[in-house]
Amino acid sequence: MDQNPTSDPRSRDLVDRAKSIIMKPAEEWPKIEAEPSSIQEVFVKYALPLAAIGPVCTLIGSQVFGYGAFGFTFRPSLMSAIGAAITSYVVTLIGVFVLMFIANFFASKFGGVENQTKAFKLVVYSMTAGWIAGVFGLLPALGILAILAALYGIYLFYIGAPTLMKVPQDKAVSYTAVTIVAAIILNFIVVAVTTSVAGLFTHSPYEDLASSSEASGTVSVPGLGSIDVGKAQQAADRAEKMAKGEIKPVATDALKALLPESIGGYTRTGFDSMAAGGLSNASATYENGGNRFDLRISDTNALGALGGMGVAMGMEQSTENADGYDKTGVVNGRMQTEKWSKSSNQGRFGVMVADRFMVEAEGSAPNIDVLKQAVSTVDAAALAKLGAS
After folding, report:
1. Tell me, what CATH number does 359's domain have?
2. Which pLDDT score is estimated for 241?
3. Nearest Cα to Cα of residue 230 among 215, 218, 212
4. Domain assignment present for 23
5. Whole domain around residue 73: which residue ranges?
6. Quick one: 192 and 262 in the same domain?
7. Rounded CA gap, 161 and 102, in Å?
8. How many other C-beta atoms can be found within 10 angstroms of the C-beta atom of residue 299?
9. 320 with 311: CB under 8 angstroms?
10. How far apart are CA 74 and CA 151, in angstroms?
């Protein structure tokens, strides 16, 4: 039975789960086995964000540092790098499901029990170390460290197999070995597909588009759909400028000035602000009777470029059950996130402004419309102007 993990007291956020499965796998696997979360929930809330680390960091690293050997440095064209990153991401996610079927199929052959949901959990969570190590893609020369982390994933799989798939301990090594051999074969296929598809982006007309400030049109990526090349180019350009220090974060006082004194019947009761690492944030708390929410304006700076990429790709995801919903997607050309729980009358609503600023209201209210109204009180034009100055 599908349940929303955010309302389940046994669930924890992505960071805590990642830390625990890496540092304390023997303790974490039984907790994972007992959780009622579905394949969709684990895929959307865990696999999707972690699997993106490697492709995104490799994309950035290839453009900033390039690939070097024997005194030579090679930087692939922007569209080639974007094509490789997107294709790698998509094929990796497909590979997770393929490996799930492999792990589930072999479980019964080694005295275990077939269960697709638990096989999916085993595969996804054992990949945690490798996915997080994808951050080393920022510096291609450190790619070997990502490989070492992936090897640790084999150990995680071995530790989790008896708990999730009920494979006898004395057969866990053989079960893991057979599954990993299948995974290695799968990896060769992934590399071949990634290379061939990414090759579509390395020559005309895409290379011409990548080198032009007037890039426009769409590019079709197998398994993903169409990408707005112009928006992708703009997002990449902004990320490059931030890396060079050409784009500075907006001062917190300027952000605070855009937070109204009151919103409908809600009165502002306090401020909070922070600036660090090239990012800035300002928020205000609003209260009315027993209801209370925070209205935040965050200057995501270069990270906003990822929002631009999201718009370019038309990304979206949603989950819904009897208690409420949680969805993210592109609405009127902007990334938008919306979440609501009927039982607690709590939710969150946010929009990305100028592909850089996240304006978000989160807390308790009679309905989601109150949070939407709060977000609308922030002058989007003034905010965009701050980012352009």
Report:
1. 3.40.1000
2. 60
3. 215
4. yes
5. 5-209
6. no
7. 13
8. 26
9. no
10. 28
pLDDT digits (tens, 9 = 90+) for 89-143: 777 777 788 788 888 888 888 889 989 899 999 999 988 888 887 766 555 545 5
CA 206 to centroid of chain Cα atoms = 26
For residue 239, being part of any structural domain is answered with no
Residues 139 and 267 in one domain: no
How far is CA 172 from each of CA 80, 105, 108, 175, 330, rounded to the nearest angstrom? 41, 14, 12, 5, 45
Q: For the residues 302-326, what does the mean pLDDT come to?
A: 65
Does 337 reside within a domain?
Answer: yes
Q: How many distinct structural domains can be found in the chain?
A: 2
> What span, in angstroms and rounded, lies between the C-alpha atoms of 305 and 57?
13
C-alpha 231/C-alpha 212 separation (Å) is 13
- Our CA angle for 50, 52, 54, nearest 5°, is 95
**Within-domain flag for 247:** no
Query: How many separate helices (H) and strands (E) can be counted in the chain?
Result: 16, 13
The residue behind tokens 């989601």 is 368
Question: pTM above the 0.70 mark?
Answer: no
263 and 200 belong to one structural domain: no
Q: Which tokens go with 317?
A: 């995801």
Q: How, if at all, do strands 357-364 and 291-299 pair?
A: antiparallel
Task: Let me know whether 190 and 48 are in one domain.
Answer: yes
Non-local CB neighbours of 324 within 8 Å, separated by 6+ positions: 4, 339, 340, 341, 342, 343, 347
